[in-house]
């Protein structure tokens, strides 16, 4: 039988789980196609981590069903474990051990003989740019290196499904890019990736499908493009030559478009949502009209773009509130589980 | 600073650029090896415990300094009053203080597990397709080495102070053997509390509440015959009393078979009850 399976990597129906008063999962449904990066997008406390922990056999759901490659996460937990790997939000390697020791430990636990485990460890450390740090304790690693050793540990057995729980939270932009490159390589080799994130651009860049999660439930699902167009409006970004013309530009845009206009932090930038509900014209026609009005008024526009709304705006439209921080889920869980 | 300089070595760091070729070699799916046997998985986890001792040797403080303090303190505190001299008292007392110290050290198993879980590394262990108890068994096997070390330190101090066991080398080894077997079994009480309780501190608190009465209300320090009846009843039922009796007998070159049978029963009960409760808890969370 082939190691890689087409079809669905994850099927979950009506998953529920409460921690005391908190309903972390309130009937979550998920269908994750195999061989893709699937994004679970939502603010802290939305239920993403709880969902991942249920799917990775770490936590029992109170209700509902979940199958990973056709295996039930409760009754066939061992079969699920043989095919998945988890990189948790918190370091899932032993910080007291060195990078090499961590990887050898896992290799041995996955059944590799001693020499093969060592060889595999060296290979992984080299591929993840950690050869120099191989003999150092993981607690002395930087955030980016720690993430990499964590992911290296997760792909030691080339899993069919990899859970990445907020892999770039707290990383600097360069380390974040490195993680993205790694994720792309992992999925290119046939591993399905379930990625949770609170960063909209991360889901946008990596995931081929996204489920927007809020209050323990999937509130929207689709490709990034579908999600954006479901909100039904575009965004015009303008950069003016002179900052002192901005107030007038703002007034003009407001009157001609009768849409919300936003002043950006950059003193020459201005943004307007177009093509929204109740507008007679489509987004491009509205934008053209706005440009005409501005040039008639002698306002020079240096840069102009018409784009889909950002996922930020999608999230805002779906939940009526911005994707902001809430409580920390795993802490809730640790609290409640005891 | 850059993300790749964890230690301030002063030299410019080489920036890691993920290379698709290098990643391709590690991502090519190989044949999956068969899963390791329960024994091999447990031994791998005890290797982890040894590595932790290697990297954090300070943790041996409680199996070296603490026992030495216990022996010295009580030998000279009680020796003159309870026997003719500290040296005479030591002949009676040393097996008892050895049991007390080692049994007290068992609580660090629970504390260690609690910290491990707090850090998240157990999340990875629990997603591995290995024999479920292996992580905990391996951890306790690593701890058994600490128990042996503590017992040997106490024996060493005792010998220096004038402890002369009649049972000779074999008797002493048999005594330590009994103690280690019991401690291994008793550790499962703490793995359970380590999983159930909220923090390292509460694990410590509960352990102390159990361990103090258990070790002091026993035959470790004095002969129970002068105690009031109700206390004698407790002391006689206390597993620590049975353990001390059998270790004392072994080191004196004798055999206390009834105490020995009790120890086997107690050990089996601890593993059966608390081992099961621990695994139930470990699997459920």
Describe this structure in words.
The complex is a heterodimer of chains A (338) and B (285). Chain A has 338 residues and is an alpha/beta fold. Helix content of chain A is 37%, strand content 26%. Among the domains of chain A are: 8-83 and 159-229 and 326-337, Rossmann fold (3-Layer(aba) Sandwich), CATH 3.40.50.300; 233-308, Alpha-Beta Plaits, CATH 3.30.70. Chain A has helices at residues 48-55, 77-81, 99-109, 114-127, 143-154, 173-188, 200-206, 224-231, 246-257, 283-296, 311-319, 329-337; strands spanning 8-19, 22-33, 37-41, 63-68, 71-72, 84-87, 161-165, 192-197, 209-214, 217-222, 234-240, 261-263, 269-274, 301-307. In chain A, helix 6 (173-188) links the parallel strand 7 and strand 8 (192-197). The relative contact order of chain A is 0.15. Mean pLDDT of chain A is 86; it is low at 324-328 and 334-338. Chain B has one domain (38-284). Helices cover 74% and strands 0% of the residues of chain B. In chain B, helix 3 crosses helix 7 (134-161). The radius of gyration of chain B is 23 Å and the shape is elongated. At the A-B interface, strand 6, helix 3, helix 4, helix 5 and helix 6 of A face helix 1, helix 2 and helix 6 of B.
Defining key terms:
heterodimer; A: 338 residues; alpha/beta; Rossmann fold; Alpha-Beta Plaits; six-stranded mixed beta sheet; four-stranded antiparallel beta sheet; 12 helices; 37% helix; 26% strand; globular; B: 285 residues; mainly alpha; disordered N terminus; membrane (chain B)
C-alpha termini separation of chain B:
40 Å
Oligomer kind: heterodimer
Radius of gyration of chain B: 23 Å
- The side-by-side strand order for the widest beta sheet of chain A comes to 6-7-8-3-9-10
H and E string of chain A: EEEHEEHEHHHEHEHEEHEHEEHEHH
The residue fraction in helices of chain B comes out at over 70%
Average pLDDT confidence of chain A is 86
What spatial form of chain B do the alpha-carbon principal axes imply? elongated
- In whole angstroms, how far apart are the ends of chain A? 42 Å
Overall CATH architecture of the domain at 8-83 and 159-229 and 326-337 in chain A: 3-Layer(aba) Sandwich
Q: Report the uncertain regions of chain B.
A: 1-10
How many β strands of chain B by DSSP?
0
Percent of residues of chain B in beta strands? under 5%
Number of domains of chain B: 1
**Major sheet description of chain A:** 6 strands, mixed
Strand element count of chain A: 14
- How many individual helices of chain A? 12
CATH fold group of the domain at 8-83 and 159-229 and 326-337 in chain A: Rossmann fold
Structural class by sheet pairing and helices of chain B: mainly alpha
What coarse outline of chain A follows from CA principal-axis ratios? Answer: globular
Order of helices and strands of chain B: HHHHHHHHHHHH
